[in-house]
Design goal:
Distance between the termini: 70 Å
Low-confidence stretches: none
CATH topology of the largest domain: Immunoglobulin-like
Order of helices and strands: HEEEEEEEEEE
Mean pLDDT: 94
Largest sheet: 5 strands, mixed
Number of strands: 10
Number of domains: 2
CATH architecture of the largest domain: Sandwich
Shape: elongated
Strand content: 35-45%
Bound molecules: dinuclear copper ion
CATH superfamily of the largest domain: Cupredoxins -  blue copper proteins
Helix content: 10-25%
Number of helices: 1
Structural class: alpha+beta
Length: 155
């Protein structure tokens, strides 16, 4: 196979670029630990109700405009749901599932995560704009999946 010089140049350049991108990504992931946020706390999904903090689900004020929400997801509800916080609050969610995989998506925000039984998910969000935010389960979890929703009211 005969190769033109400019083909060789382009092949070398593109291969070199791929190697550089992979090195940058690898450096960020392993040396700078810039991987996606992850939380490896586990829980016995059979004993969620008896395990702290899920034995007392609810909302707790932990600072000025800072709240902690402990919530369990189960077919087909969020406990506790219908949460209310003042505008400008940062809410730290601690979530787990009591049965199957559910989703936790808050419309109009970047909050969107899977809630996997056996794992504890922690995620935070600042709510600046007043309004009623729809919270949806976006993982198919059974016959009532489409009814699984709640709200977060920001006043
Ligand atoms: Cu829970 Cu779909």
């Amino acid at each position: 196979m005969k190769m033109h010089l400019d083909e060789k140049i382009w092949l070398t350049l593109s291969f070199g670029m791929i190697m550089i991108f992979m090195l940058i990504t690898g450096y960020q992931a392993f040396a700078l630990e810039m991987g996606p946020p992850s939380n490896m706390e586990t829980i016995d999904p059979q004993k969620v109700d008896q395990t702290a903090p899920f034995d007392k689900p609810g909302i707790k004020q932990i600072g000025e405009k800072e709240y902690e929400v402990v919530m369990t997801l189960q077919a087909f509800s969020f406990n506790s749901g219908n949460i209310e916080v003042p505008a400008g609050s940062t809410v730290h969610f601690t979530l787990t599932s009591k049965d199957v995989v559910h989703g936790f998506e808050v419309a109009e925000t970047n909050l969107n995560t899977m809630i996997v039984p056996g794992h504890i998910q922690k995620i935070s969000q600042k709510f600046e704009k007043p309004g009623t935010y729809l919270v949806l389960c976006n993982e198919y979890c059974g016959a009532g999946h489409q009814m699984m929703s709640t709200t977060i009211k920001v006043k």
